[in-house]
Specification:
The chain is α+β, with helices and mostly antiparallel strands. It contains 2 helices and 3 strands.
Amino acid sequence: MAELTHLEARYVVRSKLDSLLRQLFGDSNYSVHSQSDTIEVSAPRKLSKGEIDSVTATQ
């Protein structure tokens, strides 16, 4: 069953997120949906804090 991780879209570097998800889950084991100010990642497990930090920018 897929786990959901919600991210604030304004802080996410989308190219880094896409690269991380491909590394972790392969090309087809996840999905990403953008909605308003949120990005929802559906994957085999939730992203860890370290993984989230690696794809976000605070400025």
